[in-house]
Amino acid sequence: MTPTGDDVKDPAAKRAREIDLKLKHRDMNKEYQRLRTKLTPEEERGGFEDRRVINLWNDALDADFSEEELDSIKVRPEKNILLFVILKKSC
């Protein structure tokens, strides 16, 4: 659907188009992230599926985390994402 002169002037039509585009963008982004995760080698993913957890895992490996610290990421990755982001920002 291409915008016509009437669509641009009608605020309701413009808002509907914006919402439609946002939803399509979100769907495309989710699919891209799913494919990106699938194509990432298993050793780089650490057995995780969530892109944020994979990034946390790789950052932890780069920072030479101990085995105990790496195990804590495997047990509670969602808790450690927030902590790691805060620590990264403070450095």
Q: What is the N-to-C succession of helices and strands?
A: HHHHHH
Judged by helices, strands and strand pairing, the structural class is: mainly alpha
Residue share in β-strands: under 5%
Helix content: over 70%
Any idea what the radius of gyration is? 20 Å
Largest sheet: none
Please work out how many helical segments DSSP would assign: 6
Q: Would you report the number of β strands?
A: 0
Mean pLDDT: 79
Features:
91 residues, mainly alpha, 80% helix, 6 helices, elongated, 0% strand
Would you write up a description of this structure?
The chain is mostly helical. The protein folds into 2 domains: 1-39; 48-91, no CATH class. The chain is 80% helix and 0% strand. The chain contains 6 helices and no strands.
TL;DR?
The chain is mostly helical and 91 residues long. The chain contains 6 helices and no strands.
